[in-house]
Recover the amino acids of this structure.
């Protein structure tokens, strides 16, 4: 009898990876820096997407992701909303209200503790500074590349955008996380009721190391046959191709106004999209929805496209491209 | 224009067939679902209740497909209670399908795990020699036996039922019957869908003898399209990489047969 059937342990899957497919490589220098965060490749997995198991993180890393951002973790496990939680608009647009389902920071920290290879950005969501401090402490024994504070989820009450819209709370949360850890801290901002540039300014003044812009945009879909909202939460977040021009505008505005490293996020599905974000001022990009249309091959496709573009345009580093569109 | 599989399409349930006191088949007309591959599934929206992944059941009427549901949790009970004339939403089809080998096949279905087996049968040729095992707890829970015999009427075939309490057919677990059959007979392919432990043992029995085997897995699903990650098992996403995996692949997966993730994504024991 096959010995591998006999034991089912949660940790032993790690052993498999030494035997599985080799890691994505490219002959161009795709390394980038977001402040003090150094990545081999500029295409990251955005928060909320696939970010639930270390095995999947390993697979994404091998597929070409420069880093993976985890699902937003809370102090306690959250089940999220009942289905339907996602709706495909077609043409690369999606609306989701998963409801920040996650196993909780403590469980998650235990799960990623064996990680050695994958640059993991831990996304955190909470209501008060103490939530964030407590969660950061859970990760003391883990290799964490950065923390990304989710100040912008548009479809869960008391956290996310409701926090991001409150400058005083943003200040307290960023300051407390900065005081708790030496790991770089990123603030993820979105379009809420407070002007997002105000939130960016508050986060920067409170010591944040980088900004991710933007989150999904609050939206909904109604079924005309049954005449009711499709998502169980009624409202969700619009992501994918439809929000790319908006995200690009935000990155351009932030980079024009502030001296802060930026990660562009919102609707990236092609290498041209990624380059646009670099030119607007982003040092790296995150993607998620494109996986729903092109699967995880999208990481190598975009990396390869960036590589070809750099050769054609004689760029030797990503950094040379960052913010170039602002020259005119 | 081709329909967007991720965009919910509303269909009207035309007929409800009572299979057992807890299992019903809901028949509807649709352009896409009657022709999906064996093993593929749809995300089925019960408006106001929930949405859940369902293997697409065949209908013997042209232009129609079905879902066969056992009432269990809130979502499946919501679907179970749908009456003729009521509307449901469907998106998909999603997932891969069985690789059908030539020759002598063993199909094993437990409960609504028989659904992909029925569609698999309709994709066979008359040259296939088919043994179908139906596993159930008790006589009242046996269904699709007559349907299977009818669908296989042009094939050399046998349909065997085993009940855990011995109230009908063979007495005992269907997995014991699987072990007996694969140890005494040659099979070119084994296909299984049902409760995880049943699939685990079936895969074990076949794979350890070098017999090609595929199982159609079930996990908590939210998106169905490989984005949310809820259905991951090891490094695989059941919705996108599966739901069908072969024995060789499963033999390397340490979660199969032991763990599944709950709605929060925490591993729990089976």
């Amino acid at each position: 009898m096959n010995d591998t059937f006999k034991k089912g342990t949660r940790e032993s899957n790690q052993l498999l990876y030494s035997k599985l497919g080799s890691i994505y490589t490219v002959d161009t220098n795709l390394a980038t820096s977001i402040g003090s965060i150094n990545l081999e490749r500029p295409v990251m997995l955005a928060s909320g997407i696939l970010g639930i198991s270390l095995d999947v993180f390993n697979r994404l890393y091998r597929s070409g992701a420069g880093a993976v951002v985890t699902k937003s973790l809370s102090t306690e496990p959250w089940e999220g909303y009942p289905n339907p939680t996602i709706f495909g608009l077609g043409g690369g647009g999606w609306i989701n209200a998963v409801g920040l389902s996650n196993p909780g920071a403590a469980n998650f920290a235990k799960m990623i503790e064996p990680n050695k290879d994958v640059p993991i950005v831990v996304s955190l969501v909470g209501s008060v500074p103490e939530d964030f401090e407590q969660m950061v402490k859970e990760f003391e024994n883990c290799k964490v590349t950065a923390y990304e504070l989710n100040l912008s989820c548009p479809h869960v009450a008391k956290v996310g955008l409701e926090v991001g819209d409150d400058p005083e709370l943003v200040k307290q949360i960023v300051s407390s996380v900065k005081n708790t850890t030496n790991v770089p801290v990123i603030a993820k901002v979105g379009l809420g009721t407070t002007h997002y540039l105000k939130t960016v300014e508050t986060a920067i003044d409170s010591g944040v190391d980088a900004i991710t812009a933007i989150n999904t945009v609050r939206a909904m879909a109604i079924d005309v046959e049954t005449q009711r909202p499709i998502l169980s939460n009624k409202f969700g977040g619009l992501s994918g191709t439809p929000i790319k021009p908006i995200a690009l505008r935000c990155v351009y505005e932030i980079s024009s106004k502030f001296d802060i490293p930026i990660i562009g996020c919102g609707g990236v599905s092609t290498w041209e999209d990624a380059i646009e974000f670099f030119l607007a001022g982003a040092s790296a990009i995150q993607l998620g929805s494109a996986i729903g249309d092109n699967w995880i091959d999208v990481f190598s496709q975009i990396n390869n496209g960036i590589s070809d573009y750099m050769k054609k345009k004689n760029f030797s580093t990503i950094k040379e491209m960052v913010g170039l569109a602002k020259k005119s | 224009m081709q329909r967007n599989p991720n965009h919910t399409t509303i269909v009207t349930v035309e007929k409800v067939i009572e299979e057992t006191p807890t299992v019903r088949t809901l028949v509807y007309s649709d352009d896409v679902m009657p022709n999906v591959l064996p093993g593929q599934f749809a995300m089925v929206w019960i408006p106001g209740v929930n949405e859940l992944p369902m293997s697409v059941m065949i209908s013997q009427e042209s232009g129609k497909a079905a879902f066969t549901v056992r009432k269990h949790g809130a979502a499946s009970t919501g679907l179970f209670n749908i009456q003729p004339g009521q509307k449901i939403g469907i998106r998909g089809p999603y997932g891969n399908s069985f690789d059908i080998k030539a020759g002598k096949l063993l199909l094993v279905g437990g409960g609504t795990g028989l659904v992909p087996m029925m569609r698999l049968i309709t994709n066979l040729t008359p040259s296939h020699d088919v043994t179908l095992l139906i596993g159930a707890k008790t006589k009242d829970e046996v269904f699709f036996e007559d349907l299977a015999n009818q669908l296989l009427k042009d094939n050399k075939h046998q349909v065997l039922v085993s009940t855990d309490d011995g109230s009908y057919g063979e007495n005992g677990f269907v997995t014991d019957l699987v072990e007996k059959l694969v140890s005494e007979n040659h099979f070119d392919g084994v296909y299984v869908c049902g409760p995880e432990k049943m699939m685990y043992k079936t895969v074990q029995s076949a794979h350890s003898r070098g017999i090609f085997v595929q199982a159609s897995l079930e996990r908590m699903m939210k998106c169905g399209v490989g984005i949310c990650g809820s259905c991951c098992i090891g490094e695989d996403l059941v919705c996108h990489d599966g739901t069908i995996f072969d024995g060789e692949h499963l033999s390397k997966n340490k979660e199969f047969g032991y763990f599944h993730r709950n709605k929060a994504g925490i591993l729990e024991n089976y």
User: Anything to note?
Assistant: Chain A touches chain B through 56 residues (CB under 8 Å). DSSP finds eleven helices and 16 strands in chain A. Residues 297-312 of chain A form the longest helix (16 residues). The two ends of chain A are 69 Å apart (CA to CA).
